[in-house]
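Trying the structure run again after the queue cleared.
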Amino acid sequence: MIQFGTGGWRAIIGDDFIRDNIQKVAAGVYLLMKEENKTDKPVIIGHDRRFLSPEAARWIAEVLCANGIKVWFMKRSAPTPLVMFNAKKHDLHYSLEVTASHNPAAYNGIKLFVH
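Done. Tokens:
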């Protein structure tokens, strides 16, 4: 089961942090955007250097793009504050960062920021 906490969603890579669940999270973000009528602006997606982070960020971008959302994708690893700064600077509604933050290496996760 995918459950967001105060810092986003984190799971063990290969157990729950898998492509299918990552795409479900992305679909949920799209539904939130649609429900809040905030599909008019791009979403910025960043990731850290953790295993599977770049791939997970691409999978999220694919789902959002397939639903007509413009995505600004950070091609290189970027710390969470940089992603948030760019979202604020460009007056975006949402940003996502693929990271497990301080959790052990076996984990990865997704942080969603609503601006």
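The chain has one domain: 25-114. Worth checking whether this holds up in the mutant runs.
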